[in-house]
């Protein structure tokens, strides 16, 4: 029988952890968007956000199905990440509709970028699924349009939302780094092995630069100072 990366127990544990954290992330994204839809100022906004929430649930189902395909219980794979992800969302609960939109675009966007970086160290099938799940499904255009329109109407909102965006980036980075550090399998995936190269200090620096540049681009798209 042909060997695959999943025959290596350490690699299998890392891939399962990655799929588990992403699955729970998508499940909570669905839950939050459905809840935020209640704050929508118009019926059109409510419908748009509900549609995006449905897309997030579809992503969760794809990740769940991949775990099942690997012979893993999806609930068990997600369980280690419930507490840290719930804590992140508790610490960054939006106070209004606009803060919720910025969180979905800026905070989740940065976390997703980090996991995309990790995905470059997994097998092609898993990596393809991760990249497909994180492909923009219309969320960016929707958020940018609504936030920019609100700032045009009331320019004072820009300062408050910029501060909120900066807080989100700090919380998101801390949360992603904490998860990677707490899960030995993910840390090992990033560090590499004899036959699977990982990140050295220079590569870590380049990754952080890419994350920062992507965050700045999102804030600029919203009309906010990073």
Order of H and E elements: HHHHHHHHHH
| Low-pLDDT windows of residues | none
CATH class: Mainly Alpha
- By DSSP (H or I, 4+ residues per run), the number of helices equals 10
Rounded Rg: 18 Å
Look at the helices and sheets and give the structural class. mainly alpha
Total DSSP E strands: 0
Shape: globular
Q: Please outline the major beta sheet.
A: none
Calculate the terminal CA-CA distance, rounded to whole Å.
52 Å
Notable characteristics:
226 residues, mainly alpha, Ferritin, 10 helices, 77% helix, globular
Description:
There is one protein chain. By secondary structure, the protein is mostly helical. It has a single domain (3-222), classed as Ferritin, core subunit, four-helix bundle (Ferritin). Helices cover 77% and strands 0% of the residues. It contains 10 helices and no strands. Helix 1 packs antiparallel against helix 5 and helix 5 packs antiparallel against helix 7 (139-153). The protein starts with 8 loop residues before the first helix and ends with a helix. It holds the Pfam family MiaE_2.
Provide a concise account of the structure shown.
It contains ten helices and no strands.
Task: Itemize the secondary structure elements and their pairings.
Blueprint: H1 9-36, H2 43-69, H3 74-78, H4 82-91, H5 97-119, H6 124-133, H7 139-153, H8 157-182, H9 184-191, H10 201-222
Helix pairs in contact: 1-2, 1-5, 1-9, 2-6, 4-8, 5-7, 5-8, 5-10, 8-9
Organism: Kribbella sindirgiensis
Protein name: Hydroxylase
Pfam family, one: MiaE_2
């Amino acid at each position: 029988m042909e060997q695959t990366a999943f025959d290596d127990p350490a690699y299998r544990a890392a891939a399962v952890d990655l799929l588990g954290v992403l699955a729970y992330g998508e499940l909570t994204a669905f839950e939050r968007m459905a809840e935020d839809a209640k704050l929508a100022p118009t019926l059109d906004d409510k419908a748009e956000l509900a549609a995006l929430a449905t897309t997030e649930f579809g992503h969760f189902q794809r990740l769940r199905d991949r775990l099942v395909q690997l012979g893993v219980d999806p609930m068990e794979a997600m369980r280690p990440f419930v507490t840290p992800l719930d804590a992140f969302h508790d610490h960054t609960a939006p106070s209004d509709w606009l803060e919720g939109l910025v969180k979905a675009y800026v905070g989740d966007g940065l976390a997703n970028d980090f996991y995309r970086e990790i995905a470059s160290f997994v097998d092609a099938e898993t990596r393809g699924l991760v990249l497909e799940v994180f492909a923009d499904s219309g969320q960016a255009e929707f958020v940018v349009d609504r936030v920019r329109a609100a700032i045009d109407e009331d320019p004072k909102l820009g300062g408050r939302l910029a501060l909120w965006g900066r807080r989100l980036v700090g919380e998101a980075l801390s949360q992603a780094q904490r998860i990677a550090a707490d899960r030995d399998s993910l840390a090992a995936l990033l560090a590499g092995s004899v036959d699977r190269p990982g990140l050295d200090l220079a590569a870590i620096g380049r990754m952080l630069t890419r994350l920062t540049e992507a965050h700045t681009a999102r804030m600029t798209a919203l009309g906010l100072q990073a």
